[in-house]
TrEMBL record:
PROSITE patterns: ADH_SHORT (PS00061). Keywords: Oxidoreductase. It comes from Ruegeria conchae. Belongs to the short-chain dehydrogenases/reductases (SDR) family. This is NAD(P)-dependent dehydrogenase (Short-subunit alcohol dehydrogenase family). One of its GO terms (molecular function) is oxidoreductase activity. The keyword Oxidoreductase applies. It comes from the Bacteria. Pfam families: adh_short. The keyword Oxidoreductase applies.
């Protein structure tokens, strides 16, 4: 697959890693539809990259079905789905205010894990209808895990569980979709300079950066976007999770 001829749906494309991916894909010639719940930033970014926007809640079945239909209609086909929509919460299993609120745990799983699967399954159903490329390829799905899937920290039970689920479903999805010529990969980012991180005090940012062995800095969202683009084009990558973290292992 070539990025220049890709028609991609990118969830979370209104901000951070998804936005950087949307911009990188569009600059490389790809068609892009942003699926995001942010009805302000989403259309703005889409307009800047001459792409499309569908306001979407990834955890909602009907919302994603409508968004995928809209993306297919605008772009003619869907050949890539990049799942970047996600939320991060911090709460201990038992904290100062008592046990971890169950609804916060469930909401995190619902958006990060169920939402990723929801978009993937509906995008894959569309991809399966594509004419295959000469090597049989019909599409690629890229899910976003986190290094918290492997070394989650205090307060990350919900987030790490959701990202562990993303890691866990990558191989079986790749196996399920193999006969349709659809690959499934996951990226596990370390700490990236997205709006979430940019809001932290300078000294906290510096401390986080200092913990990264090499290079000792936070990740640039474009580095995530470029890895996603590489995965689109590298047809032998399938069923695997790639850490992109400067060798960071969280303690
Ligand atoms: N930034 C990091 O350091 C980092 C590290 C590891 C993993 N990640 C993961 O990468 C992904 C992107 O993170 P980011 O830092 O770019 O975050 P971000 O907050 O900048 O962007 C997330 C986007 O997802 C959208 N979104 C949230 N819930 C949604 C929903 N239910 N439906 C549709 N859209 C929704 C938001 O509107 C936002 O535009 C997340 O899954 C996050 O867990 C980020």
């Amino acid at each position: 697959m070539q990025l220049s001829t890709t028609a991609a749906v990118i969830t979370g494309g209104a901000s951070g890693l998804g936005e950087a991916t949307a911009r990188h894909f569009a600059e490389s010639g790809a068609q892009v539809t942003i699926l995001d719940r942010d009805a302000e930033r989403g259309p703005q970014v889409a307009a800047e990259i001459s792409g499309y926007f569908a306001q979407t809640d990834v955890a909602d079945e009907a919302s994603v079905a409508a968004a995928i239909a809209q993306a297919k209609d605008k772009m003619g086909s869907i050949t890539a789905a990049v799942n970047c929509a996600g939320i991060a919460i911090g709460a201990k299993t038992v904290g100062k205010d008592g046990p971890h609120p169950l609804d916060a745990f469930q909401r995190t799983i619902d958006i990060n894990l169920v939402g990723t699967f929801n978009v993937s399954r509906l995008a894959a159903a569309e991809m399966a209808k594509n004419d295959p490329e000469p090597d049989g390829a019909r599409g690629v799905i890229i899910n976003t895990a986190s290094i918290a899937a492997f070394d989650g920290q205090k307060g990350q039970a919900a987030y790490a569980a959701s990202k562990g689920g993303v890691v866990g479903m990558t191989l079986p999805m790749a196996r399920d979709l193999a006969s349709s010529g659809i690959r499934v990969m996951a990226i596990a980012p370390g700490i990236f300079m997205t709006p979430m991180l940019a809001g932290l005090p300078e000294e906290v940012q510096q401390q986080l950066a200092a913990d990264v062995p090499n290079p000792a800095r936070l990740g640039d969202p474009l580095e995530y976007g470029r890895l996603a683009g590489f995965i689109v084009e590298m047809g032998y990558l399938n069923g695997e999770v790639i850490r992109i973290d400067g060798a960071l292992r969280m303690r």
